[in-house]
Amino acid sequence: MNIFIIFLYLINMATSVDSKEIKLQLKQARELINRKDHAAALKLCENIIVQDKKNYMAWVMIAACAQELKQFNQAQCALFKALELDENQTFAYQGMISLYEKCPALLTEEDLISSYRKLCMLTRAYVFSLPKANVLY
């Protein structure tokens, strides 16, 4: 029984180290994006996906970098993957709208309208969840 507990502890420690490493890599990717080094940021985010295929922010950053590098198909695939992982976050919808503006042939107007609609619903839900003192009238 003690060996099993130690095994679980070691697995937990390895997972938390990986999580910390991924957070650090995401922060580095954001800094690279801010410095307009989209190729390096894209490579770093792809490396994160190898470690954690369900990392929403890595997929969103891949889309942003790919879009800036004019790799529009990769950006679209990354955004659809991000939406598949979490459809209640705004970043992927903002990315879809931005992608449509840069490459209208890639997405349909229905995709655009759907993205705007979902973004409005999420923003509205957030605003109405705030305490009344924080809402500006």
UniProtKB/TrEMBL annotation:
Family annotation (InterPro entries): Ski3/TTC37, TPR-like_helical_dom_sf
Segment forming the signal sequence: 1-19
Cellular-component GO terms for this entry: Ski complex
Top-rank lineage group of the source organism: Eukaryota
One Gene Ontology term from the biological process aspect of the record: RNA catabolic process
UniProt entry keywords in alphabetical sequence: Repeat, Signal, TPR repeat
Residues spanning the membrane: none
Protein name in the entry: Uncharacterized protein
